[in-house]
Amino acid sequence: MKDLNQKANSQEHVNGHEHDLIARSKSNDFDTSTFDKDEELVDPFCVEESPQKITFEDVTSAAFKIKCGVINTPCVKSRLSDMTGIDLYLKKDFLQTTGSFKERGARYALLMLPEEQKQIGVISASLGNHALALCYHGYKLGIPVTVVMPVVAPIMKIAACRQYGANVIVEGLDMREAKRIALRHAKEKRLTYINGYDHPDIMAGQGTLGLEIVEQVSNIDAVVVPIGGGGLIAGVALAVKTLHPNVMIIGVESERCPSFYMARKADRPTLANIDSTLADGLAVPMVGYNAFATANPLIDKLVVVKEEWIAIAILKLVENEKCIVEGAGATGLAAILAGQLDELKGKRVVLLLCGGNIDTTILGRCLERGLAAEGRLLKFMVTVSDRPGGIAELCRKLANIGVSIKDIMHERAWIMSDIFSVEVKVVCETRDRDHAEQLKNMLYQNYQRVVFGTSDVSTLNLPQRA
């Protein structure tokens, strides 16, 4: 990294797409006093007053130095191209050894350490992917690594970090506390703190993804990049725009963690209100100073997507691409399915599938939510005769049209209108929307009272296959 202490040039602000979904976001909801308790605990590589912009030379240097240590992942045409009307290509960086793009920046940051510091070691705070990448490549390079993981970090990821021989400290209620603890350890033990998304070498390493994309796919019209702390889009946008200035760079966030949107609105990184989200890898309350300074002038459009579309995108990637991708990696496809990028129809677009470390229980919930949102998983209540064969007749009617029953229960005690009736609650699965309509028509024709459970399950209109 060239002259890390050099002050970045004045930031050019590009008006982004402001989405009304997050008008309710409140940047003042956070108590910033917690950041001032340890004023001496400062990350010297990430300073608000002097943000460090990376250069294209930094990215090419990273590409040369890490090429033997990370996987050049495939970028292939998607089977979803016909359904979306877009010539889609998927950059499958979830195929890295530790399951995410974070390996690129982690390895480069470790390689760029002075020899003396390589002996002393590094430290970072992370919930998962960055910690895994740093521990893995620290193990490969023989560099001691300490990671501070908050108590809410997944047990599986904590165990994986320890398998690589890292010193794992599980402490802190959230990432803010974990970071303060890590900075304190760094100061006391002379460890180098490596921010997972804002360290200049981290951003340069992530930019190698952009170099691979333009080499693998010709005549690209747009690249769609998930945004969390901003390091990935900073590196990728710089690499792609330097080589092909006309390529459109689109950033995508979840409506529950719109930190880059809030930063653009304030014209500087600022705290955003973060809620629990399927895209937990993007749940960063404030984008990095260096990342914002580098990325903001290069982003042509910023999109915020609803949670249900992320669930549908995860489902579509499993069904059509056989790709198990975490919520953060599916946000680009979510924006397309939601109809927020219709201007890309007929164009060649690359989506970054940047991570695949999704918990198996969360994956199951995502798939069910995706099926429900798409209208393929239905819940309804129907009143049938309580005489022998009433419920059996309902089941036969469902079977005759090919509907699969996932759950069924009946209730007698709270049916006040008719002592000879029973209310049956059914959760069932259909093939597609036409099949769901066939089910509804059959029920309405044969039963007087049918109520579909649409109050807590929203059915969305998806693009049809061509």
UniProtKB/TrEMBL annotation:
CDD domains: ACT_ThrD-II-like, Thr-dehyd. Residues 1-13 have a biased composition (Polar residues). InterPro entries: ACT_ThrD-II-like (IPR044561), Ser/Thr_Dehydratase (IPR050147), TrpB-like_PALP (IPR001926), TrpB-like_PALP_sf (IPR036052). Its cofactor is pyridoxal 5'-phosphate. This is L-serine deaminase. Residues 69-355 form the Tryptophan synthase beta chain-like PALP domain. Residues 14-23 have a biased composition (Basic and acidic residues).
